[in-house]
Amino acid sequence: MHIDYSTAIAYAFGLILIYIVGRVLLAPLRIVLKLVYNALIGGIILVILNFFGSHFGLSIAVNPITALIVGFLGVPGIIILFVVKYILSAG
Length: 91
Description:
With 91 residues, the protein is an all-alpha fold. The protein has a domain at 30-90. The protein is built from three helices and no strands. The chain is rod-shaped. The relative contact order is 0.09.
């Protein structure tokens, strides 16, 4: 069986190109999936915090913005939201 080297090189180039395109397209998808995951975790944390914090008069509205802030920043995000809420309610 005779293998043409130009065909083999074309197949190899095609496979490399498919790999590169796949990596380029998966990077934004991973970022979006991580963003959604962090927002869900942030929302759950806010719901739990509001459940226990309601006994002490502490609550933060659960919406996509606050969920993303808590999802991205974690505990510092919760603290920032409480500080901002305190500043805006005091003024």
